[in-house]
Amino acid sequence: MNQKASVTDWIKFVVVMLVFIVGMIIMMVHEVHNLWIWGAYIAVWTWLEMKIAGNIHLKWWVWGLILLGLTGLDLIIISMIH
After folding, report:
1. CB 24, CB 41: distance < 8 Å
2. Model confidence, pTM
3. pLDDT for the residue numbered 44
């Protein structure tokens, strides 16, 4: 059942990631502080990425690097806003 990820799978994955990063930036610029909204946003993002990344099989440390990169991006954006 393990299919190899196609180029289309990778494009979808990256596009969804970029769309949600832009959404995250917009929410930070508008100073959204409600934890329920952020929780729902992250839950939808996670669910959609899991659906899209069904055929993308990365090692655990690659996912860790992705999360580390997103955290770094968050810190940069937060420092630019303030």
Report:
1. yes
2. 0.73
3. 92
